[in-house]
User: Fold these one by one.
Assistant:
Number 1:
Amino acid sequence: MLYFHPVTSFLMAEEKKSGVTSNLKAKIVIQQCLSATLQVKPQSDGVEAEYVEIDRGVVLYVCFLKGADEETVEKMAKFALNIRLSEALTGSKLVSILDLPGDILVVPQATLGGKAKGKMMQYHSNISKDTGRELYQKFVDLCEADIARNARTSEANCKVRGGTYGNRQVLSLQTNGPFTHTMEF
Amino acid sequence: MLYFHPVTSFLMAEEKKSGVTSNLKAKIVIQQCLSATLQVKPQSDGVEAEYVEIDRGVVLYVCFLKGADEETVEKMAKFALNIRLSEALTGSKLVSILDLPGDILVVPQATLGGKAKGKMMQYHSNISKDTGRELYQKFVDLCEADIARNARTSEANCKVRGGTYGNRQVLSLQTNGPFTHTMEF
């Protein structure tokens, strides 16, 4: 049985409300990891749950807000792949995930669009679920293309994995320092 | 041997630079977890590393910027403890971590103060390490006091655990949905 988290139900309801204008189009949270596992299909009717896995690299939690488009996705992917936040395998230099080279796990995370109102979070600025899913897939595709194009990541067989948009993100993360960064677009 | 992550070295250097004024005083990232483990003392000279652990609850990544004071810490703790982001154990209601009731892991995360400049992150707005450590401890103390005062959390023996300020945050996280939220103060 598919179960929707209350936040997901909220988001579905919020879609129907009128738009709230803002310059903010997307948010990303970046964490460094040694390994991470994410469920892409929940267990159902005796069929086991399915997971994807990455080794050393980054976990990218992404959220698209109203007004986000392909240009937003391109900017965000360019930023995430080139910003120097990963510890080089030797020495103490910070390098990009492409230069590490490392794996990438992209987690859909619509909750990042939340704004507090009293003791509740509201998600009025979130993009519609259908457009969000498209932009999310575009983001994963761009990461995959760049990982394949880059000499270091392709030689090292680095991989890009993504979650299932709209699902509960059952996640396991191991890190020797998440060095969490947030970025808005 | 103590090893400083390049970001930590950066932060140490940034402390010495002149202040950058901003209204932003603190940032927090909140993730829901089933369990989490955090290193509080790294392995050294044959002595094993030490860890703290929480069960179901929240992981709070906190960062203080220049201008943060006790009032900032109080606002942030009040927010984190009362915002309704946790799934109730029965039903589909969202409740506060106090009402869940659940555990709290506070992770010092100075990297949240980062601002991108080209391909690098800069941490000019971060508070000095000494003041940051004080405010961090104050935040943990406030969480502990509220958990002890609250009937639900104290009856359920919920716990607050914190990392070691300035250390590498070796973290392991299991979640059935991080439902990541960010908040600025």
Number 2:
Amino acid sequence: MIICAMNGAESLIRTLIAGRVEVCFTNPGTSEIHLVAALDRLPEIRCVLGLFEGVVTASADGYARMAEKPACTLLHLGPGVGNGLANLHNASRAHTPMVNIIGQHATYHLRHDTPLISDIEGIARPYSKWLRTSRSAAELGHDAAEAITAARTAPGEIATLIVPADVAWSEGGIVALVPGRTAPPAPDMHAVERAARMLKSGLRTAILLSGNALYGKALQTAGQIAVATGAKLFAPYPISRLERGAGIAPVERVQYILEVAVEQLKEYRQMILVGAQPPVAYFAAPGKNAVLTPEGCDMHTLATPGEDYLAGIEALADALSVRAGRDVAEKSERPSLPHGAITLQGLAACVGALLPENAIVVDESMTSGRGMMAATRSAPPHDWLGNTGGSIGIALPLAVGAAIACARSGHRKVLCLTADGSAMYTNQALWTMAREGLEITTVVFANRDYAVLKREFSYLGVGEPGPRALDLFEIGRPDLDWVHLAKGMGVPATRVSSLEDFARELWKGFESEGPRLIEVPL
Amino acid sequence: MIICAMNGAESLIRTLIAGRVEVCFTNPGTSEIHLVAALDRLPEIRCVLGLFEGVVTASADGYARMAEKPACTLLHLGPGVGNGLANLHNASRAHTPMVNIIGQHATYHLRHDTPLISDIEGIARPYSKWLRTSRSAAELGHDAAEAITAARTAPGEIATLIVPADVAWSEGGIVALVPGRTAPPAPDMHAVERAARMLKSGLRTAILLSGNALYGKALQTAGQIAVATGAKLFAPYPISRLERGAGIAPVERVQYILEVAVEQLKEYRQMILVGAQPPVAYFAAPGKNAVLTPEGCDMHTLATPGEDYLAGIEALADALSVRAGRDVAEKSERPSLPHGAITLQGLAACVGALLPENAIVVDESMTSGRGMMAATRSAPPHDWLGNTGGSIGIALPLAVGAAIACARSGHRKVLCLTADGSAMYTNQALWTMAREGLEITTVVFANRDYAVLKREFSYLGVGEPGPRALDLFEIGRPDLDWVHLAKGMGVPATRVSSLEDFARELWKGFESEGPRLIEVPL
């Protein structure tokens, strides 16, 4: 331990720096002033302001998915965490490492009944795997080190550290050493051997990958196993990060709609899970079985969340004597640029035709974007980030975080595909894009509907929605004008009325050195 | 009990109707479809869509403050409540009656690990005085009746009822009778007698009112007591609803800034609390005493939250033999319309000059609006609603709820005064104003700052903020353009550059049959 004369706040920030936390996404308040003052003095951490806390938490999520290490958030008391919860929900489902720092009143102030008193631990607990209120300036550095260690624990956890104002402002802070990241345990050899036997059985087998098994070396090796054994690689519908495109092992996404997913999976007698859960529909429907795999499908876990997916996949390749070099990768091929009136297929073709190499696609396009993955499967290699928890309103800020994570790694353009309904929840992220000059092209599919709900209404067997239900599913009357909204937050924007328009604006977006937004009326 | 053949959802909505719940503020999802279907069939409840749940909960708060009865909200699973929490925090501090209906997955679906599973009870608990997950269609109506009863319990509570989808869609629903609202208990006679003795003692005495003691008969009687005894009426800084203006008993608001409040209260040797807590600064500061009353100030509770404030005040008037008719009310007087360049004082004078009779002022103008109450004290009678919990982002949706509550009671124009930083958190409320055609004039004070934080930085003794701290306190770069933002959500808007402009636009707003927004660059 390094002992200096500093207050708790400074020891906290210095410990974060020691733990290689490089970015703080924040919306601070009075109870965090001393932490802001410490950040003010220590330029090693980049501070990024969000004008709403749901922007802050989803940005930290997007950052960690790309950087493979935690950012921290700095939030104001219970309501600050509250505003961030929905995207903490999504982050927790993505197993995103994250360190939340939440200010609290001075300990001796809590005996008064003042307006901002709340049960911060209670609010943070549902999404915090690790949770602590720091008790003294001397312990704060150590608490922060533990929070970082917890966040880094495979497959990634949300750690929340609550910092009373007097703990932050009192002298006696001690910077703690942060232990290096330890490798997660390798999967059990019996689990590996059983998976190998399944793959040698000749039965149709699906391998459902998740987390970091969906990119890099793990995906490459899984691809080789698939080639050697005839198994097929799948990703769950809620994708945290998927590497794909020309030269990458093909992975099929389990579809959202129950009947489509059942059809997709019906031939598989066996499924091997790598960090994933057995695929089940998001929602139950009266009289329907929500399990997506066929009855009797033999479900086997190769690696549980928290185990080393790469080690498990490599051990499986060894057990099968799979050799490197026998990849079957997506070919390199782009759709040609389409013309004419806007269609969902045409929009997808434009994206397939123009997506830059190394792009990051953030996808919350909902019902409007269902053709996007097919149209981009053979585009140059790129990463695909999705909504992992089903709480809509993640795309814009997730794009912010992804762009900031990759700001130093050459030119990784971000394409953010969002539905209009989804984008409204966290529209404030556009302002952060503008302030930080992020190279994000946002496409808003403006169908003026919560189209999913319209569909579900009939699907759940309650007939056709009447006018009062439609009022709750249709978000027109008045129509949202995304060109105005974006301009209001400093993001240049345009509305397109043909596929030529769209292609030109998309290109302009990819060439731009700052954010742009394209509204696509549907 | 009335037994009909209906599903749980219908029994729930019919019980709400039986309990005189007339408005449902909502942002529903798939798990609430059967509840939406029931609302679709039953037009007695007006459904109001918000495009973000913080809009929904604050609208329900604004509604209840004016209607003096609960609205219900309908929210989607854990993330839906999460998004609503910050304004539930404010509502809980306002003691607002509210019934939250939260959808949950079908009970048998919870054994799967699907993306939207969350600890809904855990998320809702910190702000729900009454909380239950309904177990069956047969019990749902009864649960709803209990929730309404809980919400109505004085001084007003937040009740949260979680409804699994299969409980909603199963047959066997039973509409429950909702017991009439019972009067809260009257304060203890000893408390009344002690208060009477204090007021007769000749010592300077403050009476700190809250809740429904700040309007109507209770305020009028408190005003008579003040006249008879020389006591002074105060409201806490966080005002839920204050009736004021010409002809109304004058009430002074305890100021936000510690030193100002201490000065304001320094002569009072005694304080009588009516539902209020002893006044304490929002935040602790190193080396400062947060208690706002002078040392040795004799603090006495006439009525605790949950007791009948009106009965307590009337009993006190009786004990003091205070006679009606001896009111000292605010005189009727308006400032004259100012001219020239924009100043905070000039803006306040314009509001004072033009505020319509019976207006509802929703005030979250923060540092920019500190002159507003002084300039309007002798304006025609009006209600003043404030931020009660210190979680900023309440004004726009609070105005929505207040406007809807008063839609049927003649022409009550709503003036919504908001800071730019605050308004961003729940900017989606503008869309609801447009959709519902609400007569709300929103004034955005655009100082491009979290000005409170800039001030607190120096105040807390950490020197002057450096450039990195200023980046977190200044919300310009780029400037938010509220004219574009409002237009993007269907609200006509304009930017003013002089006091003449402001007065003209304010007038236009008050004359308008729908919402308007005025951006005031500062």
